[in-house]
Write a structure and sequence with these properties.
Elements (H helix, E strand, L loop, with lengths): L2 E7 L8 E7 L7 E10 L2 H9 L11 E9 L11 E5 L11 E5 L3 E3 L6 H6 L1 H14 L7 E5 L4 H12 L3 E6 L4 H6 L4 E4 L12 E6 L6 H6 L1 E9 L4 H10 L9 E4 L6 H12 L7 E6 L3 H9 L6 E5 L1
Parallel strand pairs: 8-9, 8-11, 9-10, 11-12, 12-13, 14-15
Antiparallel strand pairs: 1-2, 3-4, 3-6, 3-15, 4-5, 5-7
Helix pairs in contact: 3-4
Bound molecules: NADP nicotinamide-adenine-dinucleotide phosphate (NAP).
Length: 314
């Protein structure tokens, strides 16, 4: 069996259990491609799965990848060796934190030549989540007033830019260190949560995205305009459970409280890649690490205060 370098996870627990070592190079079946990985971006899905003991079959995390096709199975029609691709492998066994990974072709799109491998790896899960939360669950419309709570991380930085793309008025909520950045990404107003509580203001919003933090559902509901929609994207575990368990209770009447579970979708990813290639959105890359320093990168991300995306270059 051929070998490759990979970051392997064996035990339930902390990111320190990620071991940089040799692993078997995967072999694609007839319906898979083999990708030489160039860049991976980390997501909360990586470290949360780790903490919950949900371990991928090959014991290698890493969902959002970009790379070049090394070889293809005999039923593959969309790609050929040498093609540059990107995609989200969370529904296909993860495996990106390695020199090579296999994936079905439906997990991938062609990476536009105008965007780098790093940029390509930032998009799949974070930007897709922001898009599906705003457009599909939030029914975003031109002129809406949109509040984005947790606007400085991977999902939030894309959410600001996409909400502006949809021609809305955007208010972002983040800590002092990220106010300037949120402003420069296009937010019309930025609330520093260390100085001001958004829920104490009388301002009402047509759409609220709860991406990070842990706020009472009633605080969100109070800030919704008549017919307004709150979409829970993420946050603390307690925020997620509260929203899933009780969101429907507060959805009686015209105000709606929903949650989003983003789904990998080639059409949406192509749309986002085109926006990026045309300069309509841009990724914020907070830190870059090499594959052997993945445990440090995961540890940093899991503290919950990274600004934009954390990249592993391979
Ligand atoms: N529903 C889905 O399908 C889906 C998909 C992807 C991700 N998610 C979830 O979405 C959440 C965000 O993901 P992410 O990739 O954006 O995470 P991330 O990059 O780790 O988010 C970090 C950001 O969160 C901000 N933050 C931390 N505490 C905050 C608070 N109390 N109020 C406001 N902002 C706060 C931080 O800003 P400051 O440093 O300024 O505080 C930091 O910039 C996670 O819970 C993740 O599990 C859900």
């Amino acid at each position: 069996m051929e070998k490759m370098k990979a970051v392997v996870y064996n035990k339930k627990g902390s990111p320190e259990k990620l071991i940089y070592c040799e692993a078997d190079k995967p072999v694609p079946n007839d319906n898979e491609v083999l990708i030489k990985v160039h860049a991976v971006s980390l997501n909360a899905a990586d470290y949360r799965s780790m903490k919950m003991g949900i371990i991928p079959k090959r014991k290698i995390f890493g969902a959002d990848i970009s790379g070049s096709i090394e070889s293809v199975g005999k039923n593959i029609t969309l790609f050929k060796p040498g093609d540059e691709v990107m995609g989200d492998l969370a529904s296909f066994g993860f495996g990106g934190l390695a020199q090579y990974v296999i994936a079905p072709e439906r997990a991938l799109i062609t990476k536009p030549s105008r965007i780098s491998f790093e940029e390509g790896a930032t998009l799949p899960m974070a930007a897709l989540t922001a898009l599906q939360a705003l457009r599909d669950k939030g029914n975003i419309q031109k002129g809406h007033k949109v509040l984005i709570v947790g606007c400085a991380g991977g999902v939030g930085t894309f959410a600001i830019q996409l909400a502006k793309y949809f021609e809305t008025e955007v208010t972002g909520v983040c800590s002092s260190k990220n106010v300037q950045q949120s402003d420069s990404l296009g937010a019309d107003f930025v609330i520093d949560y260390t100085k001001e509580d958004f829920s104490k203001s009388d301002k009402l919003y047509n759409l609220i995205l709860g991406i990070n933090g842990n706020y009472p559902l009633l605080a969100y509901r109070k800030c919704l305009a008549p017919n307004g929609i709150y979409v829970m994207v993420g946050g603390s575990i307690s925020q997620i459970f509260k929203s899933l368990l009780f969101g429907w209770v507060f959805s009686f009447g015209p105000k709606k409280m929903r949650s989003v579970a983003a789904k990998s979708n080639r059409h949406d990813l192509e749309f986002l890649a085109t926006l990026l290639a045309n300069g309509k959105i841009k990724p914020i890359i907070d830190r870059r690490y090499s594959l052997d320093k993945t445990a440090d990168a995961m540890n940093y991300l899991s503290q919950g205060h990274s600004t934009g995306k954390v990249i592993i270059n391979i």
